[in-house]
Write a structure and sequence with these properties.
The chain has about 400 residues and is an alpha+beta fold. Helices cover about 30% and strands about 15% of the residues. The protein contains eleven helices and 13 strands. The strands form four sheets. Strands 5, 7, 8, 9, 10, 12 and 13 form a seven-stranded antiparallel beta sheet that branches. Helix 6 links the parallel strand 1 and strand 2. It starts with 15 loop residues before the first helix and ends in a 9-residue tail after the last helix.
Length: about 400
């Protein structure tokens, strides 16, 4: 359920009337001509490409989304839902909204309507318009479940219109490209369940990558979308950034160190460490060494044991990142919410360490143990925040 309205995007002509007309025509064809239209427009007559495969192809140049062409398949969504996602991205492209906005918009629509253009049983007029399901949330309609303040019934049942209204309000949110997705989406939507948007960020990024040439892996630098350049606090459209700029030395579970559950990134003592993505602090403390001592305010040594001063962050989708061997107490505290790129500590050599570096780990499924650890190199590369010298 949402409330409020939107304002025009500054410095750019929206040129949306023609776009909305074209997209509405496409939707009418999809909704009202039955199986024949679905056969030709959704690729049901052939083998559509796998969306996850396309998402992993690489990045750039960003390609315009084709609304009426064959679209890839995703296990999470059907053809009509993916086409609605394409419409949302296309409107964002035509309005000049950076690709981070497309990810936010998709994640929002996933939560609000599961990417379905919903009528409402309490709004009889909506039932006579093309729709893909019937909801009953107050008088909310469409992909973004917008209420009457956003437009007429017919307008709120037009996906291109609703996407435009979402973007118009999104770009008015202060620092929207850097703040957590769930915070930004809530500023636009005013939802009763503000924390629910975050869980869709991973899939939204994959869909943006697959439909728009790896666009979720780009970062806006001097007004241009640059691939695989999210470091120094620059945030990729996926919401991720490299924790420090530096070269990877010791890798993940190598033959020499099979229990090394992360990678070591070399950097000078005192180098600022940044949160790789928005998240909640799970742990920020001194890790005991092999003898149970909490002596993290001095440099460690090989064989001492422990992570030294370290932080664990929980991110959307159950991903966890770990940052070890900080020089002093972390700058964050448990349960604190930090945005992507926030400085959380400084590189040091506390704990089981032979010199200043950041030991960086990624864990899946909210599992902080070694069972949940994965290689951070491909994980970060897929999000447009590659670790240097990682190939």
């Amino acid at each position: 359920m949402t409330a409020g309205g939107g304002a025009a995007i500054p410095r750019r002509s929206l040129r949306i009337g023609l776009i909305a007309t074209i997209l509405t025509g496409v939707l009418l064809l999809l909704c009202c001509t039955g199986g024949t239209a679905a056969f030709f427009l959704s690729g049901l007559g052939g083998d559509a490409e796998n969306g996850d495969t396309l998402a992993g192809w690489g990045c750039g140049p960003i390609r315009p989304v084709e609304i009426a062409g064959e679209l890839p398949r995703f296990t999470e969504y059907g053809d009509a839902q993916v086409r609605n996602a394409a419409i949302i991205i296309k409107v964002g492209q035509d309005l000049g909204v950076p690709s981070r906005g497309w990810v936010v918009a998709l994640a929002t629509a996933m939560q609000e309507s599961a990417l379905r253009n919903l009528a409402n049983s309490g709004v009889p007029e909506s039932l006579a318009l093309p729709h893909e399901g019937v909801g009953a949330d107050h008088d909310s309609l469409g992909l973004f479940q917008q209420r009457p303040g956003w437009g007429s019934v017919a307008e709120r049942m037009t996906p291109a219109y609703t996407a435009r209204k979402f973007y118009e309000k999104l770009v008015k949110v202060r620092s929207w490209q850097r703040r957590p997705l769930t915070v930004v989406a809530q500023q636009v939507q005013v939802s009763a369940y503000p924390d629910a948007y975050a869980k869709h960020e991973e899939v939204a990024s994959r869909i943006v990558d697959a439909l728009a040439g790896g666009a979720a892996r780009t970062v806006e630098i001097n007004g241009k979308a640059v691939c695989n350049a999210a470091e120094h606090g620059e945030i990729a459209a996926s919401g991720w950034t490299a924790p420090i700029p530096g070269d990877v030395g010791s890798g993940f579970r190598t033959a020499e160190r099979p229990s090394h559950n992360g990678v070591d990134i070399g950097a000078a003592k005192g180098t600022e460490i940044r949160a790789a993505a928005a998240g909640r602090v799970l742990v920020a403390r001194c890790d005991p060494d092999n003898q149970g001592r909490r002596t993290c305010d001095v440099d460690g040594h090989p064989g001492k044991g422990g992570c030294g001063w370290f932080v664990d962050l929980l991110h959307a989708g159950g991903n966890i990142t770990r940052y070890c061997h900080m020089v002093v107490r972390p700058r964050v505290a448990p349960d604190q919410i930090v945005p992507a790129g926030e400085v959380i500590g400084q590189v040091g050599s506390s704990g089981n360490s032979s010199g200043p570096h950041l030991h960086f780990e990624v864990h899946l499924r909210s599992d902080r143990s070694s069972r949940g650890a994965i290689d951070p190199i491909p994980f970060m590369r897929e999000r447009g925040a590659p670790l240097r010298a990682a190939e």
